[in-house]
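Quick start: read one record
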Amino acid sequence: MHVIDIIDAELITSLAEQAQDASMTDAVIVSLVGVVDRFTLLTTSAVNQRVTTNFDVPGEIAGAVGHIRDGKAHLHATLGLPDAQSVAGHLEQAAVRRHFARVFLLPVDESAASGIIGNPA
């Protein structure tokens, strides 16, 4: 298990850079905790259109899963808003400035992985 702290940075970019610095190009994101200052989510509408929504408010990370594949981070997250509502989707961007985030990773050795069917993206 590897732990990466994100402080005063863009979460997804910093996560990918720090994972690469630790020689992890492929990993499972087991957990993500913390608070982001503002963030962007990508969701899919009822008519299968992609919808991008920017939130210029803090978001408490209530849950997140994802992976790093070939050095690129891919996250889906649920974040709590200041009005006690929550939102979820593909986390496109997340600025960590006044708060922090901590990511828990398990490295994946793609050459030794078994049970992968098809071409996972």
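The radius of gyration is 15 Å.
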